[in-house]
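Crash report, auto-generated. Payload:
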Amino acid sequence: DTAVSQTPKYLVTQMGNDKSIKCEQNLGHDTMYWYKQDSKKFLKIMFSYNNKELIINETVPNRFSPKSPDKAHLNLHINSLELGDSAVYFCASSSSGRASGANVLTFGAGSRLTVL
Amino acid sequence: QKEVEQNSGPLSVPEGAIASLNCTYSDRGSQSFFWYRQYSGKSPELIMSIYSNGDKEDGRFTAQLNKASQYVSLLIRDSQPSDSATYLCAVRGNNFNKFYFGSGTKLNVKP
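Recovered output after restart:
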């Protein structure tokens, strides 16, 4: 039973196209994230939602638009894809709060996007 | 300056040796510290978390935290070839929902 699942796992598309990645978690977490991992393995946060509310919006081109219909789902839509968007996009989730054991990130398997 | 810095490696150690991985962070208000392991083509998986100064041991892994020096380390004893992976240091700052990652250290354990 996969805790954080993302679809699709692989996405190959042409420049200028629009694509979406979907994420679902069954851990009962209230916070979900999108991270981008480039070819040098650097994991950079893009967005975070807490209970459907956008709480983190890093410096990301507005071609990227996240949506969270409920706290178990987080989608990422990308318009007008560019070559530099090629990366692995990871969805993650955690439970919020100040307790030291609460905030641990659990990652999905990743979605590898290749823009040609 | 990046929030979390790691030596990218690769770090090569022989099987059975101790591997030592290091990480520094810039935000003095950081609350929690994590080590994730990422195999090639896979997602990061949590191996250790540490929240207070000192050492925390879990099997062959020991995490060490020194908040005064803003330094976190991971020791892997009796290194195995299966430990070969990229190790990512992550720090949770004052914003409890924000996790910053280092760029990872690639570890090679040679049989």
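Post-recovery validation: DSSP finds no helices and eleven strands in chain B.
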